[in-house]
Amino acid sequence: MKLIINGQSHEVTAETLAALLTELDFQGNWLATALNGEVVPARERDRCRLTDGDRIEILSPMKGG
Fold this sequence. Notes:
single chain, about 30% strand
């Protein structure tokens, strides 16, 4: 299916947000995720179903100051 991930189009096979993170090699519960503008808590990612055309944002904290 085709998704927009962090503003870029991607073809993926994942059906859930948790599977998408694995497919894209993102790891860690410290990631922040959003589906179509709504925050998805880490504990809900395995139940969060994806649909063709969904917009996903994946954010990770950065060190700096």
